[in-house]
Amino acid sequence: MLSMKKPLILITLSYIVGLLLGHGFLYFPYTFMILLAVAVVSSLVLLRMGRLTGRSLVLMITVCILGIIAYSLSAAYFPSDHYTRHIKPDRAVHTITGEIVSPLGRDPGRIAFVLAVDTIDGTHVTGRMRVSLRDDQAIIGYGDILRMRGRLYEPGVFKNPGGFDYAAYLAQKNIYMTVSVKNAQQIEIINRGKGIFRTIQDWREQIRQSFLASTNGPGSAILQAMVLGEEGGLSDELRDRFMAAGVTHILSISGSHLGLVAILLFGLARGLLFFLPERLYNRLTLSFDPKKAAAWLIIPPVMFYAFLAGGQTATLRSLVMILFGLAALILDRENGLMHSLAAAALLILIVNPQALFEISFQLSYLSVLSIGYVVTFWNDLQISSSTILQKLRNAVVLLVMISIAASLVTGPLVALYFNQLSLAGVISNMLVVPFAGFVVVPLGLVSGMLSLLTSHLPLAGLNQGAADAFYGIVTFFSRLPGAEFHPPSPGIFSMVLYAVLLLSSAGYLRARLLSTARPLEYSMGIPIRYKIGAIAAGTGLIVIFVFSFLPRDDCRITFLDVGQGDCALVELPSGRSILIDGGGTFGNRFDTGRRIVAPYLRDRGIGTIDLVVLSHPHPDHMNGLISLAKMFPVAQVWTNGDNPKWPEHKEFLGVLRDRNIPASVVAADERITVLGEARLRVLHPGPASSFGDGKDYVNENNRSLVVRIEVLDRTLLFTGDIHGEAEQALVQKPQDLRCDVLKIPHHGSRTSSTEEFLSRAEPTIAVASVGRKNRYRHPSEDVVERYERNGTRLYRTDRDGAVIVLAGQDRIDVVPWAGLIVKRIKLDGTRPWSMTEGANWKRLWIRMISRDL
């Protein structure tokens, strides 16, 4: 019977259900109303059967409704003075005043922070914005009230399957616009911040400067990240090593090493109590339990460290969990771990209902729940440990069980969000986490605090040595054979089946071991539901796994949304892949290869790129390939042979040399290259092609590789950035330019896609790879009209997101990914809820029934 014996857990679960219903309501309102009604009716049936008490039912329904309301208000309600109701992200310069309400995030040449807005162009508004200041030397800090001039932007979103939704990430923090400030001269400080939090943040900056002055290399970046929560110095390569070793969580100030610091302080506090004079100690113990006294003593320093480490959301969440754990100790509820977790989760979700959908929240709580389950189970086994060797053995076994359990529980989420799993993590965490929590962080923290008094970092050499040794351990685990692999993102059915398998297996194992260890108390046998659940879920997972290896009967071409650049992936029925260009930005400020293309390749289960075609070495086509060449095995690369002075081009060639990737300069000829089911032919430029009358970049564009791919009786034509001159050269040759799918030349600029070229190509489908609101106004309106007159179905990545073409011998389908993203209902009634819900169900149905999506 569900009763009031554990009301806190019941309240928390009911509130979480309410948040889930509230989230679903914003997309499928009528469906979730029906689900809520069914839940109420089912509860009444259970009440009638005596399986549920009346008080529990009222409590569950009340709290659930509060959860629905809380989520709906936090996610979709904006007060009348919220800035989203008064101004649009028009990319124009505005005068904004507000207060810095977050620690400063620092990257080379840039500072980022959250601003609580007060006015925009003199109009009073409310809300939060993320500010990016292109000056890392500005003297500003927490609590400062600023007046600034900056451009307002909508958070950038690249609409690709499995891609990171930056706008949704910011929305979870109630941020809906970003501000770009050119330099510190555009900022005026109206009032300096004051108070304890500002003082702590100033100390944090002084300690950071001490680390910068006294340490160097990866060790310095690690110290700043692990001691202060300052992650701006962490390179992508360094993060990759921590990810491969399965210990990337240790780089952020979260539950793992914040908890270890609390344990260290707790042990230190208890030790200090024992050093008190005997008479004083005896007098204190008459009034206080030493453990409770130690718990009280460490609360202030743990809170201080959480704020010194930046006070980020994940850090404060971990702090709340630790404080509730200490409260349980003080209140003699040491065995109430689940109650403490429930209380901490409830408080966090009341303050921020959207935290339920944050990656860090999900991973943190699943990890702690798995640890709590294992520890409780271990205590129930009551394994004897009378000798030191037995105690050591039990401690090691428990540590291994905890590491395995945490990896098994969080593994699917890590695969879903990051397409990466670390087999080394089970072992590495048992060594890396204690070393970080008991050596690197305490040593760095003590040295950092002393630096506030000495103006330099004491024990700098020891800190450098500890951090370098720590990095060496992580590097060792990251380089173990098979340390990591990159699975495709699991689907919802796979996740559900895995959860059933894991819960059933855990229940079966627990019942089996308890019946063996304590047969008199657990003699009821193993419930059959565990066996049925494990067998059914395991069978389902095997079927899904086998189904994923069935051969394809079509070719999949994906024009990725990489902003103002080009990137297309051709997946052949045999599983081979061809990547044409990799997108990129000038100066590689945003790494499209690492941030967009690599996650998509891994989401598709692609581990090796069989052919990379670089149409021409311009940044918006080439720069993304630099990271891809580092991260993936590449069988071969085709280039047009141009050798511009871009530093990124030299870096790209250097990566190819270092990784022994064959690179060939190709030109137009009659040769056909066969790759799996595909036949490739280079149509342009010829060996003697020259375009010397225009500007350099136009000539380089005109020398782009034009590649024709024939597969399954379909023809694909990739044209790079050619202009009208190169198109004229193509049509003058006696060659077949007809195609089913055309990558529109030069992003649809007005100097390309000439009438003569289109009449020869006769494309059925054409795709323009362009960035949203790009300054070049690509594609040109004249070009769009030209394709429409030609009867071509035109798609563009700025509006359609990734454009997926499924080409078979008897069909050719086009799926714009933006059209499959579910939309929220309009609470203001401007669009009927039924229309939005119907469209959302259609989108989900298409995604569910199509194996290719």
Question: Can you offer a commentary on this structure?
Answer:
The protein has 853 residues and is an alpha+beta fold. It folds into six domains: 7-76; 83-194, OB fold (Dihydrolipoamide Acetyltransferase, E2P) (Beta Barrel); 202-360 and 426-485, no CATH class; 361-423, no CATH class; 492-547; 555-821, Metallo-beta-lactamase, Chain A. It contains 27 helices and 25 strands. The strands form four sheets. The chain has an eight-stranded mixed beta sheet with strand order 16-15-14-13-12-11-24-25, with no helix packed on it. It has a seven-stranded mixed beta sheet with strand order 17-18-19-20-21-22-23. A five-stranded mixed barrel has the order 1-3-5-7-6. The mean pLDDT is 90.
Q: What's the Cα radius of gyration? A: 30 Å
How many strand elements?
Answer: 25
Helix content: 40-55%
Low-pLDDT regions: none
Distance, first to last CA: 43 Å
CATH architecture of the largest domain: 4-Layer Sandwich
Q: Main sheet?
A: 8 strands, mixed
CATH homologous superfamily classification of the largest domain: Ribonuclease Z/Hydroxyacylglutathione hydrolase-like
